[in-house]
Design goal:
single chain, 270 residues, alpha/beta, Rossmann fold, 7-stranded parallel β-sheet, 14% strand, globular
């Protein structure tokens, strides 16, 4: 019987591959037989992560990228095709936030920095659109491939503080649905586009916001736990199963969805 979850020899590119989430997912996919291409802006970190995967018998590579530079991303795609002959999946995990695009409790909308707001929109939303365009080209030629975008709980409801980030992630959810239908209608049912919406996971970007130096929760972190029925933060490894499913043939008829991986956060209200 065909193993619908078999991802052996799939070539998977991950933008933001050196982040905590990207690194964890890349390691898991390599352990399950995929060839993982880590795309990031920090070569020394990328080389370390590739070596760690290879030391455990996995297949991995690193390419320096800039998700806001079309020429650079298209060169990444050309290099992957030249070396591996195909690209089966793209995970758009690159993103981030800036202080000027947030509104602290003692601030108002008038304190929002429009330039930082635009930068956050560009990094998260445009930084998803550009790689999607570039990696779709070989997928269309192959008549097969899938994209998994990274949305957020902030896309479902406007969380306090993260004004720019929430707007960008809401755009990613919308773009995911749009691109799924666009690709299916014009390129056939072999191209799928979905997204995951992680709940709250401790990363380098949000660690200071959610936890104190001694590891205890900040008031913001406590608010998150109160809203999460599971009563805890997520572990990065807990994203891997959903990603595995979405890039495998088990999700062959699944496109245009945003999957919450959130410990029940989005389902709960007081």
């Amino acid at each position: 019987m065909n193993n619908l979850f078999n991802i052996t020899d799939k070539v998977v590119a991950i933008t933001g591959g050196c982040g905590i989430l990207g690194t964890t997912i890349g390691k898991y996919l390599a352990e399950n037989g995929a060839t993982v291409i880590m795309l990031d802006r920090v070569p020394e970190e990328g080389i370390k992560r590739v070596k760690a995967i290879e030391d455990t018998g996995g297949k991995a590579d690193f390419l320096l990228t800039d998700v806001l530079n079309t020429d650079v991303v298209e060169k990444n795609v050309d290099d992957i095709i030249a070396k591996y002959g195909q690209v089966d999946a793209l995970l758009n995990a690159a993103g981030g936030n800036l202080k000027g695009a947030t509104i602290a409790p003692d601030q108002t909308i008038f304190d929002l920095n429009p330039e930082d707001f635009q930068k956050v929109l560009n990094l998260n939303l445009t930084g998803t659109v550009i790689p999607s365009q570039a990696f779709l080209r070989p997928m269309v030629k192959q008549k097969k491939g899938c994209i998994v975008n990274f949305s957020s709980m902030a896309a479902f409801r406007p969380l306090t503080r993260v004004c720019g980030y929430a707007a960008a992630k809401a755009g990613i959810s919308n773009f995911t649905a749009y691109l799924a239908a666009e690709c299916a209608k014009k390129f056939g049912d072999g191209i799928r586009v979905n997204a995951i919406a992680p709940g709250f996971f401790i990363t380098n970007q949000n660690r200071a916001l959610l936890t104190n130096p001694d590891g205890t929760l900040t008031p913001r972190g406590q608010d998150v736990i109160r809203q999460t029925p599971f009563g805890r933060m997520g572990e990065p490894e807990e994203l891997c199963g959903t990603i595995h499913y979405l890039i495998s043939d088990a999700a062959k008829f699944v496109s245009g969805i945003v999957v919450p991986v959130d410990g029940g956060f989005n389902a709960f209200s007081l």
